[in-house]
Design brief:
With about 180 residues, the chain is α+β, with helices and mostly antiparallel strands. It has helices at about 5-10, 15-20, 30-40, 45-55, 60-85, 110-115, 125-150; strands at about 155-160, 160-165, 170-175, 180. Helix content is about 55%, strand content about 10%. The protein has a 4-stranded antiparallel beta sheet, with no helix packed on it. A hairpin with a 2-residue loop joins strand 1 and strand 2 (about 160-165).
Length: about 180
């Protein structure tokens, strides 16, 4: 890759970088997001249930049965919606690439990850990576604090008033007065 194109890419968002660098990456559609779009056009619980049966089918027989039922209940308009959705390998487990070690068809992890990144996810790739580094540092600090306090016991004395016991030591904490330790 040329130096100038690498410079341009570092100023792009992740989505554009993925399209330029990993053109052939096997990406799937989030079933949950697709179902929202489906439900807007085809309200009602039956078609919604059948949508999920088709998306989560893991073998050709189950997939075929779900699609036949969708065709019967939703007619040609539902089948056109699925055709417009794109390749089946993008949205149904039945057609997913078996060489990949995952059959996930939701982006719940990605959604959680994006919400953790906050505003950093809209920044250029290098700024995004810096944001990820900061989040990882904070997560490590919380983990270390959790390990250090695993032998502590917390006792509520009154609403907003607590006492922390660690071995023979006791530390009062007043959330009401915003005081802790020896100053409480």
């Amino acid at each position: 890759m040329k130096k100038s194109s690498l410079y341009k890419m570092k100023n792009m968002g992740v989505d554009l970088a993925l399209k330029k660098v990993w053109l052939d990456a096997d990406r799937r559609y989030c079933c949950r997001h697709s179902s929202r779009n489906f439900k807007k056009e085809f309200p009602g619980p039956l078609l919604y249930i059948l949508f999920y049966r088709a998306c989560n089918a893991t073998n050709p027989y189950t997939f075929r049965k779900a699609m036949e039922r969708l065709r019967k209940e939703g007619k040609a308009t539902v089948m056109k919606w699925f055709a417009d959705l794109g390749k089946q390998s993008k949205w149904t487990k039945n057609k997913f690439n078996t060489t990949l070690c995952s059959d996930i068809n939701t982006s719940n992890f990605v959604e959680s990850f994006n919400s953790t990144l906050g505003i950093d996810r809209c920044k250029p790739i290098l700024s995004l990576l810096e944001g990820i580094r900061r989040v990882c540092m904070i997560a490590q600090m919380v983990k270390d604090i959790g390990k250090a306090t695993k032998f502590c016991e917390c006792h509520m004395l009154a609403p907003g008033e607590f006492e922390i016991h660690e071995g023979k030591s006791q530390f009062p904490i007043s959330l009401n007065q915003r005081k802790y330790g020896f100053r409480a």
